[in-house]
């Protein structure tokens, strides 16, 4: 929460939106529920914040990425504002209950020579487009596990399940895809 010089208080938080949800938006005010944005006025009432972003075209095009969204209310010394992050993620992204981070992975292909060149299971991450995105837009590496590592690394043709996961505290999420 950010307090504007003795007056209006703007509440908003970093958040995620699926690509198809972003493409369905028609007005910037529709971002308010995603960032749980609200205003407590200097008189103790509530109001809808003004929404601004320089990235509206990318958001409604469903371009994956993290975008600054500014929520504001009032003018002069009563004005309050807060800038937060809205991250557009691919459909199929999974979240833990807190929605503090997102995990994405998709089925992938790797040729025999590429498979034989892998030096660890984490080397499979780009082949499954696997990624963990924190609520603030930061990317971190997911954990990787597969019971088929020996077969994959030997370049044996086939389809193998690979599980990507990530956890923080009691939050945990995983997704299994094929390679």
Offer a concise description of the structure.
The protein has about 180 residues and is mainly β.
Description of the molecule:
By secondary structure, the protein is mainly β. Helix content is 12%, strand content 36%. It is built from 4 helices and 14 strands. The strands form 4 sheets. A 4-stranded antiparallel beta sheet has the order 1-2-4-5, with no helix packed on it. β7 (65-73) and β8 form a beta hairpin. The radius of gyration is 21 Å and the shape is elongated.
Describe this protein with a few key phrases.
179 residues, mainly beta, four-stranded antiparallel beta sheet, four-stranded mixed beta sheet, 14 strands, 12% helix, 36% strand
First and last CA, distance = 44 Å
Total helix count? Answer: 4
Quick check: average pLDDT?
93
Order of strands, main sheet, comes to 1-2-4-5
- SSE succession: EEEHEEEHEEEHEEEHEE
Q: What percent of residues are in strands?
A: 35-45%
Shape: elongated
Radius of gyration: 21 Å
Q: Largest sheet, described in full? A: 4 strands, antiparallel
- Secondary structure: number of strands: 14
- In terms of per-residue confidence, which ranges show pLDDT below 50 for 5 or more consecutive residues? none
Structural class by SSE content: mainly beta
Helix content range of the residues, please?
10-25%
């Amino acid at each position: 929460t950010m307090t504007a010089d003795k007056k209006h208080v703007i509440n908003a938080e970093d958040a995620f939106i699926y690509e198809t949800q972003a493409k369905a938006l028609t007005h910037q005010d529709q971002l308010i529920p995603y960032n749980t944005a609200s205003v407590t006025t200097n008189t103790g009432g509530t109001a809808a914040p003004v929404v601004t972003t320089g990235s509206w075209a990318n958001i409604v095009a469903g371009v994956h990425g993290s975008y600054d969204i500014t929520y504001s209310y009032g003018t002069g010394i009563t004005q309050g504002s807060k800038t937060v992050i809205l991250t557009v993620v691919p459909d199929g992204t999974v979240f833990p209950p807190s929605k503090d981070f997102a995990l994405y992975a998709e089925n992938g292909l790797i040729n025999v020579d590429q498979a034989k060149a892998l030096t660890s299971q984490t080397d499979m991450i780009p082949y499954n487009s696997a990624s963990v995105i924190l609520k603030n837009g930061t990317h971190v590496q997911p954990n990787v596990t597969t019971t088929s590592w020996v077969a994959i690394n030997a370049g044996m043709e086939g389809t193998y399940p690979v599980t990507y996961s990530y956890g923080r505290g009691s939050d945990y999420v995983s997704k299994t895809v094929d390679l």
